[in-house]
Request: fold
Amino acid sequence: MTQMGGLDWYQRASLLGQSKQRGGDTSRWFVPKLRELDLHKGQKLRLLDVGALSCLNYAKERAWIDVTPIDLNSQEPGIYQQDFLDIKPPSATLPNSKVEDNKDTEDSTTSNSHLFRVPFDVVCLSLVVNFIGDPVKRGDMLRQAAQLLVPNGYLFLVLPLSCVTNSRYLNDDHFLAIMTHLGFTQLFSHHTAKLAYYVYKLTSQRKIAEKDHKFSKRLIHPGAGRNNFSIVV
Reply:
């Protein structure tokens, strides 16, 4: 990737990939699922879009979705430059008023801290977990998503299909076990020719120790011709 131009090249190529000519962005699959869950009714949803390549992904749904798009290397003025793992999780069990009362205790090292004082209804990790090279940090991203959600909040996650169908260390069943361990219940899963889509609901908020590593890197499918993608939690 460095030889091809690094992170900036990757993001520009991914933006091209979001065009209608290249199949569109993954939010177009996710939005009908939100409607199917009747989440387009009632209170407006707070959605954190991690690794956002466009601030317009949910523009058509602005009447019922309030989007906070973030990325490590923002390519648009409407996307906040922010490391997802550096966000200090709010207390999802406190009423919003009490969360606001704790402003002075927040990490003041980032100018974006005001965006994360209240938990989100939805967190989107679309084609970002696979971009992290460290399997432990991939697990940290999933744990962080749980900590940033309200009780019974939703996680939308997209991986390249080969991560779950052609890995030595991960398949759909193993991935489901990891997500269940983190307190998620799988609502939807869908495979296309290149991508694996998942929607989860946070049904348990058990505190998961960062170093418990119950799910270590364990060989599931030996043999040549497979990749080494794994997630450690």
